[in-house]
Design goal:
Shape: globular
Helix content: 25-40%
Number of helices: 20
Strand content: 15-25%
Distance between the termini: 51 Å
Structural class: alpha/beta
CATH superfamily of the largest domain: Aldolase class I
Strand order of the largest sheet: 16-15-14-13-12-11-10-9-8-17-18
Oligomer: single chain
Number of strands: 18
Radius of gyration: 24 Å
Length: about 475
């Protein structure tokens, strides 16, 4: 009897994650036990597996894999496609890359991380960008999310997308302001068999044009969202909240729901250099932002949970028919799941940076997009200079990504002596760098304020009372 992986499956491995089954075209990953991995290696369609030569354990695993729809059996040999054979990538596993393919933009946003109207970070040449995509494939990157600047302003966009697709890399999310999103753009995606999620910025009814610096921006965003709804493209929205638009939140969410949006992330406007000069008195402190958002936790339940997901950044994740998650205590929750709150010290400083990374328009490898606004970003490597594989193996970037909370505590006596340290885990490194102590290993003062001023318990109390009074949808 011969066994063969089904055509949609490939076997892959990376440093620290050597036994992985990937399902295409979505590039979904399943981390395997050694026994299951070794059994699937035998399922090459060429190795004859006789019952009398197989031990009971392998027989059981083969049966299990057949029941799961991973393999098929045959009395005749039929080899795998060349792409399906096991491939090991000699770098750490990064599942997805958020890539700013350009620093240019057709808007003049008041808060932009990269001062996109002036395009100060520029963009890679076509050849440099194609080479970067090839390097992503050589490192086993499974998904690329595209952003800018404005994604659709790049003239060679479809050439880059075709190169990405040629390597079986999934395009997960495309971020856009919506102005250039047309029927022709969606036709081009569908012609390539692609249906990425479209993420559109929307900063409140009556305020979006002001925030984005272009007359007609609000209608362009809504037109793009309606178009995606009509064409069956999934959408989400990110909303920057400030003193001016905070009261528009219920009206804005109802409007977004009417055009098919079920996932909205609300965030405090980061204190970028541009926002400091252009907020016109609408800037919130973090504490003011939290106070302003607390009533909307109750509103979400009282309104019957009008959308599937509503995230208040730094505060809470609300979801229909699912328990809420308080963002500030997630480190402690994970530690308790792994055997005790003190296990916090063994967690990585940033869990998100373990599975994804960000590449700037100029090719710099960063843990996350907000660090673009930091003067420290120049410490991080440019892919054109050292190569992506080295960047994911031995670079300043890796010093950050591999750092654990115990390293932070060792470098930061204030965090190490804090009574909330195991539940907080030191907070966000980008926030500490940008808005806290301006030190990568400094205190995240937003997280300090939330714990020391009792906001975490207050958030929990409000959410519990709202759930109890209004119930789950």
């Amino acid at each position: 009897m011969y066994y063969r992986l089904k055509p949609e499956y490939v076997l892959r491995g990376w440093k620290g994650s050597a036994w992985v089954l990937v399902k295409r075209p979505e590039n979904l990953t399943q981390y395997l036990t050694q026994e299951k991995f070794q059994t699937l290696l035998l399922c090459d369609g060429e190795t004859e597996l006789s019952d009398d030569l197989l031990d009971s354990s392998i027989k059981h695993t083969l049966q299990q894999c057949e029941e799961e729809g991973l393999i098929v059996s045959s009395t005749e040999s039929f080899p795998l496609d060349s792409e399906q054979y096991y491939k090991f990538y000699n770098n750490r596993h990064v599942r997805s890359v958020l890539w700013s393919i350009t620093g240019k933009c057709n808007y003049r946003c008041r808060h932009c991380y990269m001062d996109a109207p002036k395009g100060k970070f520029g963009e890679l040449t076509t050849q440099e960008a194609l080479n970067l995509i090839d390097q992503m494939a050589e490192c086993g990157i499974l998904q690329v999310d595209l952003t800018g600047g404005e994604t659709f302003i790049r003239k060679d966009l479809w050439q880059l997308i075709d190169r990405i697709v040629s390597h079986h890399i999934t395009i997960g999310t495309v971020f856009t302001n919506g102005w250039l999103l047309t029927e022709n753009v969606l036709d081009a995606f569908e012609a390539r068999g692609l249906k990425p999620q479209i993420s559109v910025s929307f900063d409140g009814v009556g305020w979006h044009d002001w925030m984005r610096g272009v007359s007609g921006a609000e209608e362009a965003a809504l037109r793009a969202l309606r178009l995606c709804q009509k064409r069956g493209f999934q959408t989400d929205v990110e909303m920057c909240i400030h003193r001016g638009n905070v009261n528009t939140l219920p009206q804005s969410i109802e409007l977004l729901r009417s055009v098919g949006v079920e996932n909205v992330k609300v965030s405090h406007v980061a204190m970028t250099e541009l926002w400091q000069h252009n907020s016109d008195g609408n800037s919130f402190t973090h504490q003011e932002y939290i106070e302003a958002m607390l009533p909307y936790i109750t509103w979400y339940y009282q309104a019957g949970q009008p959308i599937e997901y509503l995230t208040f950044s730094d505060i809470i994740v609300l979801q229909r028919n699912t328990p809420y998650r308080i963002i500030a205590e997630q480190c402690g929750v994970i530690a308790e799941q792994r055997g005790g709150i003190e296990k916090c010290v063994d967690l990585y400083m940033c869990g998100s940076a373990r599975i994804t990374c960000y590449i700037t328009p100029e090719g710099r490898l960063l843990p996350c997009m907000p660090m673009t606004a930091s003067p420290k970003q120049d410490h991080f490597p440019r892919v054109q200079e050292i190569g992506l594989k080295q960047g994911l193996n031995d670079s300043y970037y890796m010093q950050f990504v591999t750092g654990r909370i115990k390293d932070l505590f060792a470098a930061n006596p204030e965090c190490n002596s804090c009574p909330y340290r195991y539940r907080c885990g030191g907070g966000c490194r980008a926030t500490a760098l940008l808005e806290g102590d301006h030190n990568l290993m400094g205190c995240d003062r937003t997280r300090c304020m939330m714990w020391k001023n009792g906001y975490v318990n207050k958030i929990r109390q409000i959410a519990n009372e709202a759930e109890s009074k209004y119930g789950q949808a």
